[in-house]
Amino acid sequence: MPSRKEQSVPSLRARLLGQRLRALREDRGLTLRYVSGYLGVDFNAARLLEYGQWMAHYTQILSLLDLYGVYEHGEREFLVQLARDAFRLPAWEGDFNAPELDVSTLDSLWLESRAERIRCYDAVLVPDLLRTPEYAEAVVQRVYAPRASEPVLAWRSGMCGRRQREVFDRQPPVEMRAMVAEAALLRSVGAPDAVWQAQLEHLGNCGDGGSVQLRVLPTAAGYVPGMDGSFTVFDLPQAFVPAVACSPHLDSVAVHEGDAGQWYAEAFDRLWEAALPGGTSARLITGLVADMTAVR
User: Fold this and answer.
1) Domain 103-295 class, CATH top level
2) Predicted structure pTM score
3) Could you tell me which CATH number the domain at 4-88 has?
């Protein structure tokens, strides 16, 4: 769970909710004083709600949406769920064995669970959502052992599969574009050969079609701005929320909004154009598997 200090930092979820509520209020020509009276709260509470710093009950959000005339099903449902998620994510914060997760990490998990399109690029490893359980465990052992307890290591190993189910079992299917640097296909992170071979076979089956598309960014592509580090761009289902990007940083995640989020979205599109088409990427990966088999 977030520490006392981190709890004072408004989450992305709370800020997105506040920003939308403020935009709706201003569009309707209403004052904060009127809204505070309508909700039966003091002026400062209504102000802090729009800055993501006050925990309104979701029923109060429903009242505000009625006041603002928001009846379109998609937007109303999104904002109500956002109000439920804004200050706590029970699925991730209620697990006894979970390590302490900071606000930005929780925001990235929320984004992943709500996005209708995910665009991820990994410069070093296989993208999280395409890892096999055994490969994911090898990465966790490499990163966190021996400074983490066995229960925490087990939780982190299982976290990858849990996230995959959350994304790939969703209906309608989430559109995913995954890209991996060619050099990462030669980096087994210490996993046994059989585990690494199975991981490559899994990647080779992703191809370029359906809701999941995979491309390899070849070393021969030269330098393309944005290829320096791994990142993921999330496109949420509502047009009023611009693309948000996340990049890993040690044990945490950096969240990029606004112009920075747009930069990452444009960087991904540049990299995607420079990457090998899906069929060519699959043949490259299956060729690596064939080479491993021949050596063994």
Assistant:
1) alpha beta
2) 0.92
3) 1.10.260.40
**Secondary structure in 3-state letters for the chain:** CCCHHHHCCCCHHHHHHHHHHHHHHHHCCCCHHHHHHHHCCCHHHHHHHCCCCCCCCHHHHHHHHHHHCCCCHHHHHHHHHHHHHCCCCHHHHCCCCCCCCCHHHHHHHHHHHHCCEEEEEECCCCCHHHCCHHHHHHHHHHHHCCCCCHHHHHHHHHHHHHHHHHHHCCCCCCEEEEEEEHHHHHCCCCCCHHHHHHHHHHHHCCCEECCEEEEEECHHHCCCCCCCCCEEEEECCCCCCCCEEEEEECCEEEEECHHHHHHHHHHHHHHHHHCCCHHHHHHHHHHHHHHHHHHC
2 Cβ neighbours under 8 A, 6+ residues apart: 93, 100, 101, 102, 103, 106
Quick one: tokens of 156? 């982190």
How far apart are the C-alpha atoms of 267 and 271, rounded to whole Å?
6
Residue labelled with tokens 């060519």: 280
Query: Domain boundaries in the chain?
Result: 4-88, 103-295
Report the C-alpha gap between 213 and 280 in whole angstroms: 12
Query: Is residue 238 a contact partner of residue 130, using CB atoms and an 8 Å limit?
Result: no
Which residue, 190, 211, 192, 194, is CA-closest to 130? 211
Residue showing tokens 């044990």: 251
CB count within 10 Å of CB 29 equals 7
> Taking phi first (over 0 means left), then psi (-120 to 50 degrees means alpha), and beta for anything else, what does residue 254 get?
beta
- Render pLDDT for 25-65 as a digit per residue (tens, 0 to 9): 999 999 999 999 999 999 999 999 999 999 888 899 999 99
- Is 90 exceeded by the pLDDT of residue 219? yes
CA 18, CA 40: separation in Å to the nearest integer? 18
Q: How far apart are CA 154 and CA 170, in angstroms?
A: 25
